[in-house]
Amino acid sequence: MDEPERVTIPYWPRQLFLPYHKRKQRFAAIVSHRRAGKTVASICDLIIRAGNSDRSDGRYAYVAPYLVQAKEAAWDYLKHYSEPIRVYATEDLWIELEGGARIRLHGADNPDRLRGSYLDGVVLDEFADMRPSVWTEIVRPMLADRQGFATFIGTPKGKNGFWELWTTAQTDKEWFSMMIKANESGIIPEAELAAMRNTMSADEYAQEMECSFDAAIKGAFYAEELQRAQEEGRICRIPIDRAVRVHTAWDLGFADASAIWFIQCLGRERRLVDYYETSGVGLDHYARVLDQKQKQHDWLYGEHWFPHDVAVHELGAFGKSRAATLRELGIPPRTVDRHNVLDGINVVRRMLARTWIDPERCARGLEALRQYRREYDRKLKDWKAAPLHDWSSHGADALRTFAAGFDETPASPSRHRRHFFPAGPPSPWAA
User: Fold this and answer.
1) DSSP conformational letter for 248
2) Rounded distance, CA 59 to CA 121, Å?
3) How many percent of the chain have pLDDT more than 70?
4) pLDDT digits (tens, 9 = 90+) for 14-70
5) 371 touches 392 (CB < 8 A)
6) Bigger pLDDT: 224 or 422?
7) How many Cβ atoms are within 10 Å of 91's Cβ, its own excluded?
8) What are phi and psi of 179, to 5 degrees?
9) For residue 413, what are the contacts with CB-CB under 8 A and spacing of at least 6?
């Protein structure tokens, strides 16, 4: 039997990445400093594994937070390194290799484009900037029937979904893990690192170059307030006072996730006692969640706060608004008037100064508040005033709805606002 032809692609891996290319594990997590070469290494790993596959129908993907980002970061690399074994490349950002395997670029901003297919292997680049559900609800099931592999690469941005994967990779035998810090890799000269330390903040340098998951996130709206709450011991396990009603604050999405905060108010003090978030379900699902939590904690509900667009009609609901559906489900909505987002953020800041947060029941919501940040303008090289819309927006927007509606109206903070309570036993703190 003839030996298969050996073809060499124009890739000479850095010594640091050799263990990655030789790994036997299905899943890999690489935390790396900027300019270490992680995108090139992961793209070439896709090409090598796709080219060596016996499957003529092999399907592989590279996913970045945005499609335009995938094109900018990986398209030229994909074409260049695959050239010796590439049959053709298309304007739709996919290539076909000799043997029939295909590799395609995707953006996590349009995850539905990924649905309905299978994958033999995938790279998720800058996973910290993606909704974690892109992996759990979309990509992971696509690997199942082919037992495909996955690589997660990126730089830390707080203790979010990427941190959770990295933590898992440390102890799970099915995972390969590698962290590449600038002071250890030798890739960037020490003189250049010293110059960077002189121009970057300590948190920026720790996050971008030394792979710190604990560094404060640049542009985060609530960094100072949450740091102060941590120092003052207000981020801690909170007992639920069954004599105090629990209000809910919502952010409802159509294709995106929906988020619910569960909040108790004692005088001016706010207690974030629970949090729930999911996607792809109807309003009846959330009604069941509220019922289950009421039975679990034996609490009584107060008001249910929603953004102004809750009156929008549901698709396929025969013209019925979501507000009407909620009322039928026993969740009478209190709507909050449309307001300036930045004014609402300032209202949340004031509220957080007197807020306690349970870090276990509210783990995902707390991380959303930590991650909620300004959008960066790549052209102007500066931060925009407006928030970045990503997975963290849902939890942050839900809390802003509550603060703007219950505590004060951002457009007129000095205006006296009456509070109405549903029929039932009087709240011990209601005036």
Assistant:
1) E
2) 7
3) 89
4) 999 999 999 999 999 999 999 999 999 999 999 999 999 999 999 999 999 999 999
5) yes
6) 224
7) 5
8) -120, 130
9) 347
> What is the spatial distance between Cα 427 and Cα 431, in angstroms, rounded to a whole number?
9
- Please give the Cα distance from 23 to 28 (Å, whole number): 9
Residue 420, Cβ density class (10 Å: 0-12 exposed, 13-18 middle, ≥19 buried): exposed
Angle, CA of 103, 109 and 110, to the nearest 5°: 65
Q: By 3-state DSSP, what share of the chain in percent is helix, strand and coil, each rounded to 5?
A: 40, 25, 40
CB 287 within 8 A of CB 428: no
**Average pLDDT along the chain:** 88
Determine the 3-state secondary structure of 394 from DSSP. helix
3-class SS letters over 30-75:
EEECCCCCHHHHHHHHHHHHHHHCCCCCCEEEEEECCHHHHHHHHH
Q: How far apart are the first and last CA of the chain?
A: 88
193 burial via Cβ count (<10 Å: 0-12, 13-18, 19+): middle
The set of residues, in sequence order, having a beta carbon less than 8 Å from that of 82 and lying 6+ positions away, is 9, 47, 51, 95, 97, 103
Residue count (the chain): 431
Name the region of 180 (left: φ>0; alpha: ψ -120 to 50; beta: rest): beta
Q: 360: how many CB neighbours lie within 10 A of its CB?
A: 10
CA-to-CA distance for 37 and 423, rounded, in angstroms?
A: 62
Give the torsion through C-alpha atoms of 43, 45, 49, 51, to 10 deg: 60
Instruction: Give the 3-state secondary structure of residue 416.
Output: coil
Q: What DSSP character marks residue 269?
A: E
C-alpha to C-alpha distance for 205 and 191, rounded to whole angstroms: 14
How many alpha carbons fall within 13 Å on the CB side of residue 155?
Answer: 18
Contact 60, 46 (CB under 8 A): yes
Q: Determine contact, residues 335/409, Cβ cutoff 8 Å.
A: no
Domains of the chain by start residue, with CATH: 15-208 (3.40.50.300), 223-407 (3.30.420.280)
- Are 278 and 258 contacting, i.e. CB atoms less than 8 angstroms apart? yes
